[in-house]
Write a structure and sequence with these properties.
Length: about 300
Amino acid sequence: MDYCNIDIEMVKSIFPKRKKNSHKGTYGHVLNISGSNEYRGAAYLSSIGAYKAGCGLVTLASTEKVIDVVSNYNPMIIYLPLLTTNFNPFAKVFNINKILKNIKNYNTICIGCGLGINSGSVYLVKNLFNSLKDSNIPFVIDADAINIIAKEKIKILPKNSIITPHPKELSRLLDMDVNEIEQDRIKACIKASKKYNTITILKGEKTLISSCDGQKIYINESGNSALSKAGSGDVLSGLISGFLAQIIKDESNNASTSEKLIQSAIISVYLHGLAGEDASFDLTSYSALQNDIINSIGKQIKNLI
């Protein structure tokens, strides 16, 4: 088994390059399936995280109530309106068909941030995973999409996937106690990767990244307790999907798809941690909020390039 500590030189070596002759399509298109009436902010944070990473286009697939809120905060996001499934027997089928009809437009899918676990969200996640399980389009799977995997005992994920659980979410996936996970985080992270044949990012102090086969473990030491607030994981998922969209579109990158997923994970957890540290410098880890962390991401990228 190969253990690697993530550092600035590693991140610099895999960081995607910008081109002088380019356009928005050059840097990829993220489909972000996120948000619910209870968690509207998650849709905003994950979408802006993707843009802050540098991708060219972000489409948010969510309900009209979520879109109404998010559109007031940022004019760059594109919208794919979904029907609210409450009391509408046709909405579940309509929503999955609408996403699949447009799927060819996207290079990366981010799913789960604030999505909720109602029957409509469950139907959407299960059918999307089943329809795209053999597709080459990569997935970043977070939050309620992870909870739905555990709740519905979904065993097969799309073949190019990253899951991003915190210890409690991982405990549901592995049917293990959180304390048992924290006693040997590396072992638990590898177990999840092998069980679901996916790259696993286990969030927390010294965030871990495990390859699909569990043979490579990357350890990240950037970050602090400023990240221990609601919305932090949404920003991270956005960053991962935004970097992944660029890396997938980069024809000069000869790495395999699995390696590209790991590259996006390494870059994102490292920068996300640095942004948390930087935002805390003046504001302290008590008061630094997600917008402060988002606003620091550009500074951290500037220090890399």
